[in-house]
Design goal:
Blueprint lengths: L2 E10 L4 E3 H5 L6 H8 L3 E3 L9 H16 L8 E5 L10 H8 L7 E4 L5 H14 L5 E8 L12 H4 L5 E10 L5 E9 L7 E2 L12 H6 L1 H4 L2 E2 L1 H22 L9 E4 L4 H11 L10 H4 L6 H11 L8 E8 L3 E8 L1
Parallel strand pairs: 4-5, 4-6, 11-12
Antiparallel strand pairs: 1-7, 2-3, 6-7, 8-13, 9-10, 12-13
Helix pairs in contact: 3-4, 9-10
The chain binds coenzyme A (COA).
Length: 334
């Protein structure tokens, strides 16, 4: 049986920077409120003339990941693509990326697990490699949040949090024992589906039609019980991380780097405290990108790769929590 390991990481964010001061001009908010409650200083949004989409950002991130892995699209056997903001309602963005990369008829699988989407996708790809079905898989998280959020005072509790971006990794089979993805741990709890959700264009309502969708604010913009999300995030991420460590007979002292999903800096700091990790073993970049949902973890990884902070033999723990609720963790030995 093979293991899977990450051999290349890439990311892409739109050029246009939106600071908290920019948001102050379009809604009743303040840089002070946003920084104090979330740690966010700025995020990236697509803005004309830059033309973009979830699949196009994924294309740019994939090119970088494949270049760093020393492979081309011809070498890739499949795509696993996580997003909550696909280009179309259907089909998913995976096939659009597959076409852009000129991958013939190779399969593209779309994963809908929101902020946990990247770890869910990594887990799916890892199983395909472990069973020997595929050898090299592109795993993507990509999000265009800026077009789906309400950038007025009415939607400020949600819209100040999110940003656009994409991250990608090349996952390859390896015969090296004890290297690569050591394990993944996935959870969901659908009773909380409506604690963080966007209802339309869902099919769960009768008489849904185009006009209805656009007249009904509650259904057409993301809704969140922020404090419930906060409370669950700070318990579920450490819980899943501890489970991953126990499964591999490791402890928090073995972790060289912990990457928490970037939902809110206060959430990351609380999780860090629960895990008793020193500052130098935790990396956050929400300050410059906001919450990029499924793209967050591969963007963090790509950032560290660029800084030369990923070293052979190191143990990374990653954890995420989000809409669903879904949550997940993984251990990676480089
Ligand atoms: C969203 C979040 C930052 C809000 O922080 P909070 O401390 O819970 O703040 P509250 O929702 O209680 O709001 C406090 C006040 O700030 C106001 N407020 C909300 N958003 C605001 C904004 N962008 N700017 C200024 N004021 C704002 C509220 O209206 C409220 O005012 P009131 O006291 O007069 O009623 C926080 O709940 C959170 O981070 N939750 C988790 C979010 C998350 O992770 N989501 C993604 C999941 S992966």
């Amino acid at each position: 049986m093979f293991n899977s390991k990450i051999t290349g990481i890439g990311h892409y964010v739109p050029n246009h920077i939106v600071t908290n001061h920019d948001l102050e001009k379009i809604m009743d908010t303040s840089d002070e409120w946003i920084q104090e409650r979330t740690g966010i200083r700025e995020r990236r949004f697509y803005k004309p003339p830059e033309k973009g989409s979830t699949a196009k950002m994924a294309f740019n991130a994939s090119k970088m990941a494949m270049k760093r892995a020393g492979v081309t699209a011809d070498d890739i056997d499949a795509i696993v693509f996580a997003t909550l903001s696909p280009d179309y309602y259907f089909p998913g963005s995976g096939v659009l990326l597959q076409h852009m990369l000129e991958m013939g008829t190779k399969p593209a699988i779309d994963i809908r697990a929101q902020c946990s989407g990247f770890i869910y996708s990594l887990s799916v790809a890892d199983q395909f490699i472990k069973t020997g079905m595929y050898n090299k898989i592109l795993v993507i998280g990509s999000e265009t949040q800026s077009v789906g959020i309400d950038l007025t005072t009415r939607g400020r509790d949600m819209s100040v949090l999110f940003g656009d971006g994409a991250g990608a990794v090349v996952l390859e089979a390896t015969e090296e024992k004890g290297k690569g993805i050591l394990s993944t741990h996935l959870y969901s709890q659908g009773e909380f589906a409506e604690a963080l959700y966007k209802r339309d264009p869902g099919t769960g309502r009768e008489n849904i039609n185009y006009r209805g969708m656009h007249e009904d604010y509650e259904c057409n913009s993301p809704q969140m019980d922020g404090q419930l999300v906060f409370k669950n995030a700070i318990t579920r991420m450490p819980e899943a991380t501890m489970e991953a460590l126990a499964k591999n007979n490791l402890t928090t002292e073995d972790i060289d780097m912990f990457l928490p999903h970037q939902a809110n800096l206060r959430i990351s700091h609380t999780v860090q405290r629960f895990l008793k990790l020193p500052d130098e073993k935790v990396y956050n970049n929400i300050q410059k990108y906001g919450n990029t949902t499924a793209a967050t973890l591969p963007i963090l990884l790509s950032d560290l790769w660029e800084q030369g902070r990923i070293k052979e033999g190191q143990l990374f723990a990653i954890a995420a929590f989000g809409s669903g609720f879904t949550w997940a963790s993984a251990l990676i030995r480089w």
